[in-house]
Amino acid sequence: MSETKLEAWLDETRTFVPSAAFVAQANADASIYPEAAADPVAWWGRQARERLTWDVVPSQNLEWNSPQATWFADGTLNASVNCVDRHVAGGLGSRVAFHWVGDIDGEAVSITYEDLLARVSRAANALVELGVVAGDRVAIYMPMIPEAVVAMLACARLGAAHSVVFGGFAAEALADRIVDADCHFVITADGGFRRGVATPLKPAVDEALLSCPNVRKVLVVRRTGEKVSWDPQRDVWWHDIVERQSSTHQPESFPAEQVLYVMYTSGTTARPKGILHTTGGYLTQAATTHYYVFDVKPDRDVCWTSADIGWVTGHSYIVYGPLTNGVTQILFEGTPDSGGRDRWWRIIEQYGVTILYTAPTAIRTLMKWGEDIPANFDLSSLRLLGSVGEPINPEAWMWYREHVGGNACPVVDTWWQTETGGIMITPLPGVTATKPGAAMRPFPGISIDVVDGDGISVGNGEGGYLTVTAPWPGMTRGIYGDPERFAETYWTRFPGSYFAGDGAKRDLDGDLWLLGRVDDVMNISGHRLSTTEVEHALVGHPAVAEAAVVGASDETTGQAIVAFVTLKLSHLGDEADQAALVHELRAHVASVISPIARPRQIILTPELPKTRSGKIMRRLLRDVAEQRALGDVTTLTDPTVVAMIDRLMAAHSGDDA
Length: 657
Ligand code: WT7
Known about the structure:
Largest sheet: 8 strands, mixed
Bound molecules: 5'-O-[(S)-butoxy(hydroxy)phosphoryl]adenosine
Helix content: 25-40%
CATH topology of the largest domain: Rossmann fold
Number of strands: 30
Oligomer: single chain
Number of helices: 21
């Protein structure tokens, strides 16, 4: 985030105070902040006991051995019972848990909590038959269909950790994640639909499993009906094994610190990190934040979180938070323009969606398509709007408020990460004011600081590094198989505090504004990718000698990938060859990692700018990619390299768009 942009943000003096009508019905009032602050650990303890159903109610709250925390450790519970069984037992079986809406227009099914319980029980019984036991890891690689949620809950029910891998990842990325977590089971589908087109998934699993010898069984949902290759020893159709199971399953109780899931995310190295989450603390934070941040009334709200379950947003705010609270939700398989650019608004109108939670990228895309489209629909059911995943620019925030929320809904910009498990910084609707582009305040019971390079708190009107200064229930318990990397990555930069990797600013009122990553992590359409990961993919191509990747700001996707590549001598062809090669390299990255990692632009250059110690100067390359005046180049071995790259960039701008 550049300084000039920041100034523009802070010029925004607009502040929206909660309306009296909203305040009158809000789940929270102003007393929540001092109450939580008086004793945050005890406050979380009360949330845990109030919002969850325990088989053994914990007698303790936090045990803190920095950076290792346990929460509610002597309590026992079952996550799937908390999400499903207890609602049915409480008489809410006929409430809709999900209105599933398919990518293809007209395809939809509503699933009640009672249906969900039967589905989860059958799936759990099937997993038992396949040999899944508590403590196993199960990879889930699926489209947004009900079976994906059912599979997650079935794993949780058995005390097996799921590791959901976003369906957009390529075979190699999937294989890395399966191997790293040592998954012995994979749940997938033949494919999914995207804008009406069947897109295969099973072939990627087949390819990935060539390098995953420990996988014993693959459970496959038939979704598209496309032909797939089949290993009869290993592959099992979902409809063959799940449908014939009993619709009851006796759940076991697990300790609060039982691993609930692993979720891979990108760090600053090429190797993704398996972020571990456990059961009791994580569920407490997911449920509590969902309840207060979205002000949910489970008996009447229809919540829609537009994320994919392959990301943490889907885990916490489609599966665990909302289901723990027993709400009704939309589960949408498609993209915002599956079946037309008005698809979202049609869904909101048809189902009376009351709470919408999405990402700035989606808002900017909808904005680009024009406000005339939402204006054609009755969106008056909406009463609250949320944003997550990247900094939201004030223009997008205002558009969201005006053209989606009819100037009547609070907009909550929520900051958190895969590692935090749940929302950490957010306004509270009906309590705090909101400002276009600001995440405002730490959630009750969460301790945040913004510090300078020496770890000293900055004052109001100043920026610095975002840190969390006390443990919280949903915090990751570590990186799968690598406890040292956990301590090193998050807890050494500012000893005693968790370093998030983000920059933040306190405005003159002391409210928090998020400024984007301060490390080599990029945020492309709210998807987190590391520069090194993409560089690694590029140098894996036989033509590439060296690669440097930066995230350059982009109007729609927040950031976009720009890669600077030097070729091996043997591959220096003429211009036409080079254009073809650029095309091939972009496709190569997409096929190794995912289409979301496909560089927007690749600049072939004879050299990369390096310091005398041989480090590639990414900062300078980012300046070049964002067409900014160049900073200090005096530490470079050869300052002319940057000018040369600048010229190449200008000559090729728009090439790959
Ligand atoms: C990174 C975490 C949280 C679920 C989705 C992403 C960025 C997230 C915001 C926000 C500014 C945000 C941060 C963070 N981020 N929310 N409201 N304002 N930045 O989870 O993939 O773990 O990425 O997303 O840079 O570190 P993730």
